[in-house]
């Protein structure tokens, strides 16, 4: 094989890794790209130029260097402003929303949140795809994929929502098939991907948010109802043999606690979700706003002034800490991120929650896992987009023919 052919093949094989580095913000310049890929400057330049030709990134034609920097200035790499997008959609217990998401995790456009979820998944998914088609037509952008986040474990390889407990959908609803049928009916030519909402939120946080750089990332989050968990190992979701791993909401923290829909009692799912906090504070759910919004507002506005709210917050945080400690003992993560209500429990009293984890953990003070709040708005939407972007990140040429 000639040297030029070897360079060509090396550059082609580096397209996916290079795009992933730019996508996650790890290669802001061509010099960094060269170092991260372990290739020559010429090969890195050719790779960056090819990604620009594909319309995915922009290479700054005039390299510059920050004031005081030494060495040759390098070309900056950024996501193309007019590049392709993917359709991202999310369904949760209190509503659903569609968005267009660019490389880099930026939300280009989003629909208003719908508040009522029909018992027919085909009706909801069809409305999401139709709303996404309207966003796409208005944007003038090219759509290269589609992803859907649902509040259920999604079994693989069949793509069914195994247990949408807080929706009126039937167990085993074929959400991926429905999604792909709706996409085809709406004129989309891309394949649809589906996943659990907390799994996808964790993936988004790992690539663009609070989990960036973690090797063993544990995410635990409340949705609008219930609790979910996810584990990202070396950049990839751990979903188990059939897509059903990390149902942490069904970890028992109080054997005498509330009955759970899984058949047990005192699970995180029913002891640390928004409804549990409202119940503990003696506040019946109101007609306005989602349960998640009501719980957030209660902590933010009354934690400091109302003893009942403060006691309820402490009780729920202590139960969460006990559950997190059990997960730390089993999984030994290097970082824990908390979303939804759990994020606000952490913000209300960081020391209390961290102490609860430490006191129940086998490793105690020796545990090195940082506990941080999630930082991305709509991280499950962004995560649904990550599913859609993955084939392009793996092999841009194969996924973007022509």
From TrEMBL:
InterPro entries recorded: ATPase_NBD, ROK, WH-like_DNA-bd_sf
Pfam families: ROK
Entry's transmembrane regions: none
Tree of life domain: Bacteria
Family: Belongs to the ROK (NagC/XylR) family.
Identification of the protein by name: ROK family protein
């Amino acid at each position: 094989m000639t040297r030029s052919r070897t360079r060509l093949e090396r550059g082609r094989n580096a397209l996916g890794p290079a795009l992933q580095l730019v996508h996650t913000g790890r290669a802001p310049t061509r010099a960094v790209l060269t170092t991260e890929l372990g290739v020559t400057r010429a090969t890195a330049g050719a790779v960056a130029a090819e990604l620009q030709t594909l319309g995915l990134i922009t290479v700054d034609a005039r390299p510059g260097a920050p004031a005081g920097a030494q060495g040759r200035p390098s070309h900056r790499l950024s996501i193309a402003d007019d590049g392709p997008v993917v359709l991202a959609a999310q369904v949760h217990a209190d509503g659903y929303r569609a968005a267009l998401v660019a490389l880099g995790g930026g939300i280009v456009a989003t629909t208003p949140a719908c508040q009522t979820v029909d018992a027919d998944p085909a009706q909801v998914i069809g409305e999401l795809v139709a709303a996404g088609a309207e966003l796409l037509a208005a944007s003038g952008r090219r759509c290269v994929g589609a992803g859907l986040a649902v509040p259920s474990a999604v079994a693989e390889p069949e793509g069914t929502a195994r247990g949408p407990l807080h929706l009126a959908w039937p167990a085993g609803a074929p959400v991926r098939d429905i999604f792909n049928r709706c996409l085809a009916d709406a004129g989309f030519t891309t394949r649809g991907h589906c996943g659990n909402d907390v799994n996808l939120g964790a993936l988004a946080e790992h690539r663009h948010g609070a989990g960036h750089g973690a090797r063993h990332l544990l995410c635990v989050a409340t949705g609008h109802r219930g609790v979910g968990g996810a584990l990202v190992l070396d950049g990839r979701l751990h979903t188990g043999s059939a897509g059903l791993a990390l149902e942490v909401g069904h970890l028992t923290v109080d054997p005498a606690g509330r009955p759970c829909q899984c058949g047990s009692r005192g699970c995180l799912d029913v002891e640390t979700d928004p409804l549990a906090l409202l119940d503990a504070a003696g506040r019946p759910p109101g007609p306005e706003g989602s349960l998640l919004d009501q719980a957030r507002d209660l902590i933010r506005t009354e934690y400091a002034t109302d003893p009942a709210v403060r006691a309820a917050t402490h009780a729920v945080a202590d139960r969460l800490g006990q559950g997190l400690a059990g997960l730390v003992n089993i999984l030994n993560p290097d970082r824990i991120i908390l979303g939804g209500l759990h994020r606000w429990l952490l913000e209300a009293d960081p020391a209390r929650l961290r102490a609860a984890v430490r006191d129940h953990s086998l490793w105690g003070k020796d545990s090195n896992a940082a506990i941080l709040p999630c930082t991305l708005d709509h991280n499950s939407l962004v995560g649904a987009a990550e599913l859609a972007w993955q084939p392009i990140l793996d092999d841009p040429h194969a996924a973007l023919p022509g």
